[in-house]
Every structure is written in structure tokens, then in C-alpha cells.
Structure prediction request, 119 residues.
Amino acid sequence: MKKIILLTSILLAFGGAAVLNASDSPDSNKYHLTTVKWVEGIQNGLDNDYKYVVLEGKVTKKLDDDSYQFSDGTGTIELDSDIELPVGTKIIVRGEVDQAFMHIGPLEINVDSWRHDNK
Prediction:
């Protein structure tokens, strides 16, 4: 009986770790639909760095080659994207929160993908 309990505990421990790691993957579709205001509110929690998020709004202007200003009506945040983003069009952005080290520099979202908002 003790062997069965031990084996079950081991399987649950490894299975639980696999589930936890899968939810952190960008391929797991576990992005968090949220707002700029929410992202700005988590800025002090370093464990939130690289949290996957989805934002709906508009790129209001291009800042430089890979930086954009984005607004969703609750606030404005900088997007860092190797992908060209349309300015002035409502889009949905998937990316990761990137907090500045020791709050030196901007809080931004590293864009993984985007699509037009067809609403």
C-alpha cells in the first residue's frame, strides 16, 4: 500500500510540474486578456516579468525602428516589436511583459504576434 501511495505521489508531482510549465509556454494559449492599466499595476511585482498578455487597442505612433506607443483606453504603454505594426488601426497584440531592471527605463510589451481586431 505504501508503494502505491509513494508512486502516486511521484506521478502527481511530475504531472503537476508539467502542467505548471505548460501554462507558462506561449504555445499553450494561456495568454491573459488584460488592459494597459492592469499591466502598469503589476510593475512592482518582479515575478510578473515575462507574463504573457493580450491587449486590444491602437498603436498611436511609431517611436523608432522597433518601438511603438500603444493605447487601449485605460492607459498607454510601449510595444517592442520586430514585426511592423499598423499605426491608427485597432489591433490585438500578444506578447510578454518586460519590466525595466530596477525601474530604469520603460515598462513595455515584447510583441510575439498581432492581428487586426475584426469587431
User: Anything to note?
Assistant: Confidence is low (pLDDT under 50) at residues 1-27. Strands lie at 32-33, 52-64, 67-71, 76-80, 90-98, 108-116.
